[in-house]
Specification:
It is built from 10 helices and 19 strands. By secondary structure, it is of the alpha+beta class. It has 2 domains: about 10-235, Rossmann fold (3-Layer(aba) Sandwich); about 240-355, Nucleic acid-binding proteins (OB fold (Dihydrolipoamide Acetyltransferase, E2P)). It has a 6-stranded mixed sheet, sandwiched between helices. A hairpin with a 2-residue loop joins strand 15 (about 290-305) and strand 16. The radius of gyration is 25 Å and the shape is elongated. The two termini are about 40 Å apart. The relative contact order is 0.11. The mean pLDDT is about 90. Bound molecules: adenosine-5'-triphosphate. Adenosine-5'-triphosphate (ATP) binds near residues 18, 23, 46 and 198. Adenosine-5'-triphosphate (ATP) binds near residues 21, 44, 46 and 49.
Length: about 350
């Protein structure tokens, strides 16, 4: 029996040093049973180093990793109930699909008939035709190989599946299809997935929570909506997409017009006010929002169903505004633009918080 309230994985104060360089600075992380956690961050932030330690490909310098009540950082990789799916797949190219999927079962000395039955079941799970059992890996397409690699990972029946950028080598359409399939697979298997990616979009589509790494530390760990709406730092806000920043000093910010109620709510507060381009709306003459901005359009882009404007405020600050195409403004570059948003759509990163991050 497992206790659902207990995390399946606990990482305590994990530090990794390579000679005099520290790649991970005492990171803590709890992963819930059955969770889909994505780890994102810029190149060199420590994602791969962390995963390599978790699966046992590398040793930590300090700290501990627990799988339920067992300390696993002292357990050799091949004895850990975890499994890794790589971008490079690591399939046996000259063997059949069936042989590849059955490999982990063979290692465990499962009898041939039972192995085959399980491999066929896994072909069903991954939505590959059963007659692929005898097909050679070399004859499979990129997407099919990825499914075979997943089937093989599931054949290990691991407690946790780790993924290191498994889709990054695939073309856009296939990636999009497999993103949805992976999410679906996660739901159907109920396994815990920990997934590294460079792609924020991928993380947002698939995961329950996103952990954002920066220079060997977790900057924020939360569901995507929360990270998007309430980033703890400018780094996270920018990482999650386009954003406008306003420097708020004692409730005042240059270029920002406020209603008396908004001014009262922001009175005495300092930090960075963040406003997403799509939170803004165009305002008719004479109408004001909680926060209002006035300026001139310096560039405009048609983004499918939306229009994006770059607007120059009187202060010289540029702002990005995104509205539905039907709400776009006539006049184009050089035209005056008035936009605004509700105070609830703006998020204040308080000063002390950002400085500490
Ligand atoms: N074996 C090693 N020896 C020395 N430094 C290393 C070693 N492995 C990784 N590093 C350093 O540790 C830091 C983190 O690397 P890591 O590969 O974990 O980053 P990452 O976030 O996975 O990057 P990417 O997204 O580019 O794969 C980098 O600065 C890297 O140069």
């Amino acid at each position: 029996m497992t206790d659902a309230s207990q995390p399946i994985l606990r990482i305590n104060a994990l530090t990794k040093r390579f000679d005099d360089f520290t790649a991970l600075h005492g990171v803590d992380l709890n992963v819930a049973e059955g969770e889909f956690l994505a780890i994102v961050g810029p190149s060199g932030s420590g994602k791969t180093t962390l995963i390599r330690i978790l699966v046992g490909m590398d040793e930590l310098s300090d700290g501990a990793v627990w799988l339920r009540n067992t300390r696993i950082d002292v357990v050799p990789a091949n004895k850990r109930p975890t499994c890794m799916v790589f971008q490079s797949l690591a399939l046996f190219p000259h063997r059949t699909v069936g042989q590849n999927i059955e490999f982990p079962l063979k290692l465990r000395k499962v009898p041939p008939a039972e192995r085959k039955a399980r491999a066929l079941e896994l072909l069903d799970t991954l939505r590959l035709p059963r007659d692929y059992y005898d097909k050679r890996i070399q004859q499979c397409s990129g997407g099919e190989k990825q499914r075979v690699a997943l089937a093989r990972a599931l054949a290990f029946d691991p407690e946790i599946l780790f993924f290191d950028e498994p889709l990054s080598a695939l073309d856009y359409r296939l990636r999009k299809t497999l993103e949805k399939e992976l999410k679906d697979l996660h739901r159907r298997t109920g396994k815990t997935f920990i997934y590294i990616t460079h792609s924020l979009e991928e993380a947002m589509v698939m995961s329950d929570r996103i952990a954002i790494m920066k220079a060997g530390r977790f900057e924020q760990i939360a569901p995507a909506e929360e990270i998007y709406a309430r980033p703890v730092s400018k780094f996270v806000a920018e990482f999650m997409g386009e954003v406008n920043f306003f420097d708020l000093r004692n409730g005042q910010a240059e270029g920002l017009l406020m209603t008396p109620e908004t001014a009262a709510a922001l009175a005495g507060r300092s930090g960075t006010l963040t406003i997403r381009p799509e939170s803004l709306r165009t305002l008719p003459e004479g109408q004001a929002a909680d926060l209002t901005f006035e300026g001139e359009i310096v560039a405009e882009y048609l983004l499918g169903s939306r229009m994006q404007y770059r607007m120059m405020l009187a202060t010289g600050q540029e702002m990005i505004v995104e509205v539905l195409r039907e709400n776009g403004v006539a006049g184009g570059i050089g035209a005056a633009l008035r936009v605004g948003c509700d105070l609830s759509a703006a998020h204040l990163i308080e000063e002390a918080r950002d400085a500490a991050a």
